[in-house]
Amino acid sequence: MRPIHAGARALALLLICAVAVAACGKKPAKPNSLADARVVRVVRVEGRPLAGGLIASGVFISREEAAVGTELSGYQVQKVYVEEGATVRRGQPLAQLDDTLLRAQIEQQAALTAQAQSQAQRVAGMTGQGVLSQEQIETRRFQAQAAQAQLADLRTREGLMTIRAPVAGIVLTRTIRPGDIVSPSTTTPMFTIARDSLVELAAEVPEDALASIHVGDPVQVTLADTAVVTGYVRLIDPTVDATTKLARVRVRLPVRGDLRPGGFGRATFTGGSIAPQTLPEPAIRYDADGASVAVVDPDNRVRQVSVKTGRRAGGYVELLEGPPAGSRVLLGAGSFVLPGDLVRPIEANAPVPATPMQAR
């Protein structure tokens, strides 16, 4: 009887081993209830102002320059009233041309015009009387009109002898001096004026940073003497330099005496009045496919979402593209969690709840 019992024991041992091996080969079952799901920390996509920001350098330029010249030719500059750096008002005299010869021509032409008009008036009532032919009468009328037109032309020139500022602003350049002979054929203006004394910063910004800059965004501009001025984005140039891959962003600045065209400034783009959507840096996952986050859907299932990141500051990352505001995202880039997994999310600053085993 003993051999039979020994064989039974051996058979039972083999069955137990087979069951154990089969059990080891099975994958652990996924939790089918929230109570059995893995507890994970989540954070919300939310608007948050980021300190610091993109820094770009640039030069100060006039917002708009007015070139001042003359239509006259052959006249000598008699006086120059303003220097570079002077602030002028619209219509203010900038220079005076010598009008000595012109005044003599006006006096002579005025006398000729008076004589021609007198002759035209004497023959005004002779039409059809046979004293003068109609052609002679029309000739005297034409001579009177031509003399009057010539006098008007000379008086117009007299008004142009004073070079006036077409706009108010600060004088940037002056290229004439007393004794120069003016000519409209020259390409160099007599004066250039910064309209309304407006100076702005032309900052050079990398192409990949343009998406985070918008017209109207506030900008902190640091001057050469370390003074800081607040400006606003006025214009983003529509083209990018093909060689440097930089684009110009023009920053509107207040009128100040220490802002001079040609100077150097440094712009810090702090973003608009609307805080950008952000996440803590540990919530972003980076791999061969780029940046992504693990989003917890309303049914507490995990879903991987690709994102496009922007600025970084204070441990947070700006989301240029990604899940909408308020979305729950796994903190820690979704470690040990796969897409489709059921999880039990808790807010990052909430205490971890007790598991069923701990409750016992």
For the CA atoms, what is the radius of gyration? 43 Å
Distance N to C terminus: 49 Å
- Please trace the helix and strand order, writing H or E for each element: HEEEEEEEHHEEEEEEEEEEEEEEEEH
Indicate the mean pLDDT.
84
Report the sheet with the most strands, covering strand number, pairing sense and barrel closure: 6 strands, mixed
Shape: elongated
Explained architecture:
With 360 residues, the chain is α+β, with helices and mostly antiparallel strands. It contains four helices and 23 strands. The chain has helices spanning 2-25, 100-122, 134-160, 356-359; strands at residues 38-44, 46-47, 54-62, 65-68, 77-80, 87-88, 93-97, 162-164, 169-174, 191-195, 199-206, 218-222, 228-236, 246-252, 264-269, 277-280, 285-287, 290-296, 302-306, 308-313, 316-321, 328-330, 343-347. Helix 2 runs antiparallel to helix 3. The radius of gyration is 43 Å and the shape is elongated. 22% of the residues are buried. Mean pLDDT is 84; it is low at 356-360.
How are the SSEs ordered, and which strands pair?
Blueprint: H1 2-25, E1 38-44, E2 46-47, E3 54-62, E4 65-68, E5 77-80, E6 87-88, E7 93-97, H2 100-122, H3 134-160, E8 162-164, E9 169-174, E10 191-195, E11 199-206, E12 218-222, E13 228-236, E14 246-252, E15 264-269, E16 277-280, E17 285-287, E18 290-296, E19 302-306, E20 308-313, E21 316-321, E22 328-330, E23 343-347, H4 356-359
Parallel strand pairs: 1-23
Antiparallel strand pairs: 1-22, 2-16, 3-11, 3-15, 4-10, 5-7, 6-9, 7-8, 9-10, 11-14, 12-13, 12-15, 13-14, 16-21, 17-18, 18-19, 18-22, 20-21
